[in-house]
Amino acid sequence: MTSETQPRVIKVDKSNLLDLKNACDEALREYLENKAGFRQSHRHTDTKLILGYLGCAFAAAGSYYGYIHPFELSTTKFWTAVSVFFYYLFNVLMMAYAYLVEKNTIFAGSKITPNGTQTIAVESSVKQYHPYYDMAFDMKVDHSKSASSASSAAPKKKATHQEFSTAFQYWFDEDGVLAQDAFEADIAKFLANTEATHLE
Amino acid sequence: MNLRQILTNSLNVLMMLFGVFMSYKAWGLYTNCESPLVVVLSESMEPAFARGDILFLSNPRKPIDIGEICVFKIPGRDIPIVHRVIDRHDSGEKEKQLLLTKGDNNNVDDRGLYQELYTNRGKMWVEPKDIVGRVQGFLPYLGMFTIFMTDYPYLKYALLGGVGLVVFLYE
């Protein structure tokens, strides 16, 4: 491993499951982006931001309209109702997006490989009273853009879904310090595994 | 914090504020009343309502009856009044009702109040346009919190700013 600056020590309260998860999420993101070479896609965050701010725009416009016009007018009531409706609609859409599309995704990104554009999405979760970090790797390779696409009889797009689970004890020491080497070695293994399955 | 983080946290603060505000608006539309919650400030309706009680208002379609308690605003005065209707003149249409009110705890009716401002000289009745809402229910003393915050506005700003900051900095 090329040693750059001293890597910062990640230390958490090891009796706090959420702390452990957040530390792993952060380390995983950093690894995928800086070491595995994936470019992060902010599609999920951006979609939610747009939906959220659209809702707020309706709320702000409706509030302002109500502020400058007397409430008794039926037009004021109508436009207030419209703004309330759209505010809640965009709120619900935003929540629906988080629950149905984004789910537990902590990283989405892609990189260009000789085989084509490789897209990855990683989900992570923990279960209460269960000291395991559950991961799901979703990998997709778009061969259409690769140099050797002429030879491939395989479908142009292929998706793989692989799940892994590791106990936190393998990654954190007694003091709650994350053993970056062990963590990254494991993640690299999972990545390679997913990739290998993908090529079968 | 990068730009996305800042935008996300700002959105959380905005949605917290608008969430409360839009719910209130929705409630206002449902009850047909611009401010469906008011806090009693005076003792003129004792023993029915005390200072600090929260009143729930609405504006039903049917005409206002004698004995109902109404919240109304006298033109030119900002603070609404909660008093009971003791007399009415109308032709059965709600839009043309003329009402006389009186606080349960006051010795006289409100004519003096109506005419306090010289611009209102000759105002003998509360008119439909003055009505804010009709009392449908109340919660005792919970409004003391609001009164306290109005008396000490810095407390309000501190509270709002504090909550906003916590939401903003929360990751």
From TrEMBL, chain A:
Keyword list (alphabetical) reads: Endoplasmic reticulum, Membrane, Transmembrane, Transmembrane helix
Biological processes per GO annotation: protein targeting to ER; signal peptide processing
Q: Where in the cell is it found?
A: Endoplasmic reticulum membrane
Protein function: Component of the signal peptidase complex (SPC) which catalyzes the cleavage of N-terminal signal sequences from nascent proteins as they are translocated into the lumen of the endoplasmic reticulum. Enhances the enzymatic activity of SPC and facilitates the interactions between different components of the translocation site.
Q: Which family does it belong to?
A: Belongs to the SPCS2 family.
**Membrane-crossing residue ranges in chain numbering:** 49-67, 79-101
Extract one GO cellular component term from the record.
Answer: signal peptidase complex
What is the recorded name of this protein?
Signal peptidase complex subunit 2
Task: Describe its membrane topology.
Answer: Multi-pass membrane protein
Q: Which Pfam families does UniProt cross-reference here?
A: SPC25
Species in which this protein is naturally found: Podila minutissima
From TrEMBL, chain B:
BP GO annotations: signal peptide processing
Give a Gene Ontology cellular component term annotated to this protein.
Answer: signal peptidase complex
The main place the protein resides is endoplasmic reticulum
Give the subcellular location: Endoplasmic reticulum membrane
- Provide the function of this protein: Catalytic component of the signal peptidase complex (SPC) which catalyzes the cleavage of N-terminal signal sequences from nascent proteins as they are translocated into the lumen of the endoplasmic reticulum. Specifically cleaves N-terminal signal peptides that contain a hydrophobic alpha-helix (h-region) shorter than 18-20 amino acids.
Keywords on record: Endoplasmic reticulum, Hydrolase, Membrane, Protease, Signal-anchor, Transmembrane, Transmembrane helix
Q: Which CDD domains match?
A: S26_SPase_I
Record-given protein name = Signal peptidase complex catalytic subunit SEC11
Q: To which species is this protein native?
A: Podila minutissima
Any idea which GO molecular function terms this record carries? serine-type endopeptidase activity; signal peptidase activity
Q: State the family named in the UniProt similarity comment for this chain.
A: Belongs to the peptidase S26B family.
PROSITE patterns linked: SPASE_I_1 (PS00501)
> Keyword Transmembrane on this protein?
yes
Catalysed reaction(s)?
Answer: Cleavage of hydrophobic, N-terminal signal or leader sequences from secreted and periplasmic proteins
- How does the protein associate with the membrane? Single-pass type II membrane protein
Class in the EC hierarchy, top level: hydrolase
Q: Which domain of life is it from?
A: Eukaryota
What are the top taxonomic ranks of the organism? Eukaryota, Fungi, Fungi incertae sedis, Mucoromycota, Mortierellomycotina
